[in-house]
Design goal:
The protein has 534 residues and is of the alpha/beta class. The chain has 23 helices and 14 strands. Helix content is 46%, strand content 11%.
């Protein structure tokens, strides 16, 4: 392509910007400059894009964001414009209308130019997508991938197709002590809690006693509910039983989640609470993420097992509704409960894939691999340095100039950064915001561990193993309610034992055999390299 004078000038400006970023790497950020007026920013962006289009350097490519809830349907705004300036590309965005759209696109043979999806097993196919290594070799590019990231993202065929968002090896988190996990938490009504003497709650026995006091003293209040969206993860974490992932490690062996022995304690506790009248039958028919929220706002419930940002979110909603009470998170219970724990058993959950239908693989390769960098994550997640955020004095977290939880979508803020992040950059703003959300996540992080090898046990989309796992999830979903609502403790335990027997009859043993052929090989390999610096 012929490069005219304007294009050369713009390339020089872009190179100067990159050199400044490199020169400043590892140093504290300079004092913030006054942000430009929004109108001036829009005018400048529009002029820049018009100039680049005139130079003939903007190419429109297609990106498919495989999430029904994906917040952006257009590539526009101040932040996407920065990417367009850098790479000379913009995207025609497609968001699925149903969960089967990716399969339909695969069948058609046209996946566009970039696919953002969590469907790792389906997309890691050399007939369907380019590998990163082959593109690097094809175009003479460097591909510097941390050895641990390469290990956990390598597909079953031995190739590297993408890096999945949400995971960083231990060495990449060194020095970032403000990084916390996003996970579950529980809130209680402050007015009732204070009227009962604000007792310190450090374990489930003490919390059960508190629920009994609520039951005795406030007969019109439901003592406990859980969010159907979070599937009561918080109480399960306190019992050491987690349903986030397909497999768990039991005595060094990977087993299907339903066989986690900690579920026995969880179901015993929940059945006890149900039989004491601490719960409502409505909870078991809720399906929407806001059902429990409506109960709380209406003043019908004391405690809600939900998520780490629930206190901050619910208190805004309660204020808007004119409620005369608020909620607070019980972090002391997270820290104090013996045996509580959560394992982040993921190697990532969403990646950027370059399909064989891509019409400009080199430009897309440059864009995708740039998304893996800290520079990209800062821009796509946080915005422009000096305009939207500045580094803290010790360069350990960003100080945001806007509400990170409610970014300006007209500017294309934050959510394009969800295409890829390292599990660190997406949570660092929480520290500056402080408050209940950060405190709840800090508490969960204190009782957490990481085992990405469990997340590497990826079953083929149409495999017999995946069919078995899907059936086990349906079994759990169907039986959990019956176990909790059983009339006696003995009946509840019998139903639990029957569920385990049914799991084995449905092929759980076959899954154990399949998983450990891989787990027994990969876990020692991972343990050898998990502390690698590069």
């Amino acid at each position: 392509m012929k490069i005219n004078r304007l294009a050369r000038k713009m390339a020089a400006l872009a190179l100067s910007s990159v050199m400044l970023i490199i020169a400043g790497c590892g140093q504290a950020a300079p004092a913030a400059t006054a942000p430009a007026e929004p109108a001036a920013q829009e005018e400048t962006a529009a002029e820049t894009e018009a100039a680049v289009e005139e130079a003939g350097d903007i190419e429109t490519l297609k990106i498919f964001c495989d999430e029904l809830w994906w917040p952006y349907t257009e590539w526009k705004g101040r932040i996407p414009d920065k990417v367009t300036e850098k790479f000379g590309i913009k995207f025609e965005v497609t968001v699925p209308t149903d969960a089967n759209q990716l399969n339909m696109m695969i069948a058609s043979g046209d996946l566009g130019d970039v696919v953002c999806t969590g469907n790792f097993s389906r997309m890691c196919d050399s007939n369907l997508c380019y590998t990163l290594d082959e593109l690097a070799e094809m175009y003479g590019k460097e591909l510097n991938i941390h050895s641990v990231l390469r290990f956990v993202n390598t597909a079953d065929d031995g190739n590297l197709y993408t890096l999945m968002a949400g995971y960083s090896p231990r060495s990449m988190l060194e020095g970032w002590d403000k990084v916390v996990y996003e996970q579950a938490a529980m809130v209680v009504r402050t007015d009732i809690y204070e009227e009962l003497g604000s007792p310190e709650i450090t374990n489930l026995d003490e919390f059960t006693d508190l629920l009994q006091q609520v039951k005795d003293n406030y007969p019109d209040i439901v003592p406990f509910v859980y969010s159907p969206w979070q599937m009561n993860n918080y109480i399960r974490i306190l019992c050491g039983a987690v349903h986030d992932y397909d497999f768990v490690d039991v005595d060094g062996q990977a087993v299907p989640f339903i066989l986690d022995p900690h579920f026995e304690k969880y179901f015993e506790l929940m059945n006890d609470w149900y039989r004491r009248g601490f719960m409502t039958d409505d909870n078991f028919v809720w399906s929407g993420s806001g059902d429990d929220r409506e109960y709380v706002i209406a003043g019908k419930v004391f405690a809600d097992s939900n998520y780490s940002n629930t206190e901050d979110g619910f208190n805004v909603a309660l204020a808007d509704a004119g409620a005369d009470f608020r909620v607070k998170t019980l972090d002391s219970l997270t820290y104090g409960q013996p045996g509580a724990g959560w394992v982040q058993a993921t190697a990532g959950w969403r990646g950027l894939f370059i399909p064989k239908s891509c019409k400009d693989p080199e430009k897309v390769f440059d864009f995708v691999t740039w998304c893996f960098t800290q520079e990209a994550q800062e821009l796509l997640l946080w915005g422009e340095e000096g305009v939207d955020w500045n580094w803290s004095e010790d360069h350990s977290y960003p100080e945001m100039n806007y509400d990170f939880y409610n970014p300006n979508r007209d500017d294309g803020m934050k959510f394009w950064g969800w295409m890829y992040h390292d599990g660190k950059m997406n949570v660092l703003p929480d520290y500056a915001n402080g408050g209940a959300t950060y405190d709840a996540r800090k508490a969960i992080t204190a009782i957490s561990d990481s085992n990405p090898v469990l997340g590497m046990l990826r079953m083929g989309a149409d495999s017999n193993e995946q069919v078995i796992m899907d059936n086990l999830k349906i079994l759990y979903q169907n039986e959990a309610t019956n176990i909790i609502r059983a009339a006696t403790a003995e009946e509840s335990h019998e139903l639990y034992e029957k569920m385990i027997e049914t799991a084995y009859s449905m092929g759980a043993e076959q899954l154990i055999t399949w998983a450990n052929e891989t787990y027994a090989r990969l876990k020692p390999e991972f343990d050898k390299i998990k502390d690698n610096l590069e």
